[in-house]
Amino acid sequence: MAKPLPTLNLIGAGRVGQTLARLWTRQGVLRVQDVLTRSPDSAQSALDFIAPDEALASVAEHMVDMRPADIWLLAVPDAQIDACAQNLAAHARQRGDSPALAFHCSGAQGAELLAPLRDLGWSVASVHPVLSFASAQTAVAQFAGTPCALEGDAAACDSLRPLFTGIGGACFDVRSQDKVLYHAAAVLATNFAPVLQALAEDAWRATGMPDALVLRLRERLLRNAVDNIVALGPQQALTGPAARGDFAAIARQADVVAGWDPQAAAAYRALSDLALRMAGHACEPPQT
Ligand SMILES: NC(=O)c1ccc[n+]([C@@H]2O[C@H](COP(=O)([O-])OP(=O)(O)OC[C@H]3O[C@@H](n4cnc5c(N)ncnc54)[C@H](OP(=O)(O)O)[C@@H]3O)[C@@H](O)[C@H]2O)c1
User: Fold this and answer.
1) Ligand 1 in reach of 105 Cβ (< 6 A)
2) Which is the closest atom of ligand 1 to the Cα of 16?
3) What is the pLDDT of residues 52-101, one digit of tens each?
4) Assigned CATH topology for domain 190-278
5) With a 6 A CB cut-off, is 169 part of the ligand 1 pocket?
6) Angle at CA 234, nearest 5°, toward 232 and 237?
7) Is the CB of residue 128 below 6 angstroms from any atom belonging to ligand 1?
8) Domain ranges across the chain
């Protein structure tokens, strides 16, 4: 007889919870059991998306309604993880549940947030899939190949690794003490490009550039930058005044940007300093 699948309870079933639970259900990796969100309606529509044919799955109106499970995913917003873990630990203690595995998917927070459960003998972890979950539908289609950062108790990570590889995740380990820097790096890698692009476009428009040309520059410069960084690495892909060590041009441009937008000028100067450092021109040449 086939071994029964491990059961999964979901606290929070938005974009990430629905995506993972649906993939695990479809691949026959886990069996989704109880789903709790802020409202029974959203939990029901999540369950309809995850496992419409799973007769044993149900919507929980309160945490106390949730049955014991092998694995608990706390897929709530980061600010809610702490309180959910405390509530879950209080219910588990009251009912005398056997220790289970609990994890969350925050990139910025570690498994330490689940300490109230660890104190009951549960194994705890965080798994951060490095993907923009724009919607559960898009993320289900895009998930295969997604790098997933595992952090937390060794036993929990060992159990979670095959679950994520089973749905196409590419797992790697992050040490607990490195989690914040790891996530800050992900922010640097992806979140500032739109900010810089918006500033550049505002500055171009301030010079009277027509929208059609702004859009053309957007596409060409961004695509070329990505292609060059991927092909050559960031250091070789760097061009512009910092790459040439042209301190005078940087100072002149920073002054003009300051007259247009002082906050943008602060960013321009800070990023130019980093670019100069990267290009090996760390110190401004002495004035003669
Ligand atoms: N979105 C991304 O691109 C992404 C990528 C990687 C990791 N993550 C991480 O994944 C986690 C979940 O993010 P998400 O984007 O899936 O969030 P989301 O789409 O906003 O969904 C949050 C879910 O949590 C439920 N919820 C909120 N407070 C709750 C509470 N106190 N008790 C029970 N349920 C509660 C919501 O209920 P309702 O449905 O009733 O509103 C909703 O189902 C976060 O830790 C986030 O950092 C997100």
Assistant:
1) yes
2) 16
3) 888 889 999 999 999 999 999 999 999 999 999 999 999 999 999 999 99
4) N-(1-d-carboxylethyl)-l-norvaline Dehydrogenase; domain 2 (1.10.1040)
5) no
6) 60
7) yes
8) 7-188, 190-278
